[in-house]
Amino acid sequence: MAPKLVFVLLIVLLGWALQAILRPPPPKLCGSPGGPPVTSTRIKLRDGRHLAYKEDGVEKDKARYKIVTVHAFDSTKDFPLPVSKELVEELGIYLVAFDRAGYGESDPNPRRDVKSEALDIEELADQLDLGHKFYVLGTSMGGYSVWGCLQLAGAALVVPIINYWWPSFPPELSRQAFKKLIVPEQRTLWIAHNIPSLLYLWMTQKWFPSSAAAMHHPEIFSKHDMEVLQKMMAMPRTIENKSRQQGIYESIHRDLLVAFGSWEFDPMNMTNPFPQNEGSVHIWQGYEDRLVLVELQRYISKKLPWIKYHEVPEGGHMFILANGWADRILKALLVGEEPSAVSK
Fold this sequence. Notes:
InterPro entries: AB_hydrolase_1, AB_hydrolase_fold. Residues 84-321 form the AB hydrolase-1 domain. Keywords: Signal. By secondary structure, the chain is α/β, with parallel strands linked by helices. It contains twelve helices and eight strands. The chain has an eight-stranded mixed sheet, with helices on both faces. Residues 11-17 have low confidence and may be disordered.
C-alpha cells in the first residue's frame, strides 16, 4: 500500500505544480488595492465590467461623422489615430477610442471572444448615444473586433489580423503563408490555436523566443516600418504605454488566444451588409507587411467582392502612421474619395 500511496501523492503534487506553472496570475484591476489608478472616463457594461474611452475631434452633437476606433495589439486608446485636424474640421468628424478588454483601464473579460468584442463596441455606442449610423475603424489586431460589427454605416479594416485556420482558406495557401512568418511567430500562433492552455507558459519562458510581435522583433518590420519607427523614436515621448498594466495574460495573451483560436463564424461566409450601397466596408493592406500577409488578404477580397480592397505598394504593417495615410483612409470610408496612389 505504501508505494501506491507515494505514487498517488507524487501524481497529486505534480498536478499542483503544473497548475501553478500553467495558471497565469490574476490581473491587477484598475482601481483595486495595489492595482493601477483609474484616470480615464469609463462606462459600466451590462456584465459589470468597465470600459475606458477617450473622445476626440469635433463635438459629438455637431459631428457629421462619428467613428469608433479600435486599437492594435499591445496598444491602447491613448495612441490616437494620426488624422489631421484640418480633415477633422472639414468633414466634421467625432472620434472615440476605447481600451479593449484587459488593456489600459478597461476591465479584463475572461470570456473574451470575437463576438464579445463587437458587443463592447455596440454597447459603448449605445451609452454614448452615437445613434444607428456610425463607423468603425480597426487596425491590425483591432480588426477582429470589427469583423463582428460590420452592419453599421461603414467599416475600415487596416492591415487586419488574419486567422490562418479560417475554414474557407485553401489549406495549401494557408500553409504557404504561415511558413513565411518568422519561426518564433509560427510557434506562438500554433500554440495559441492548438494548445491554448500552454500559451502563458510559452510566452513567459526564457529558453526560446516567443511572439515576435510581443517582443518587437526587428524581423517583423519592413523597410517602410523601420522608417516610421525611427521617426517616432525621434519625437518627444508624450504617451505612456499602459497596455500591459493590468497583466500580460488578459491583454496581449488573450488577444492571441482570441484572434488565432476558433472563431464563432467564418468571415468569408459573410454576406454584403450594404446591398443597397448605403454603406461600405474597406480593407487596407500594405504589400510589404510581414505580420499580415498580402496573399491572404487578396484571397479574402476575392471571396468577398463587396469589400473595397486597397493595396499600398510600399506599405508595411505600420503605413497608417505615415505620409497622411490616415486622412486618405478616412476620406475613402466617409466620402468615397479614392487616393490615386493606391492600387485596387
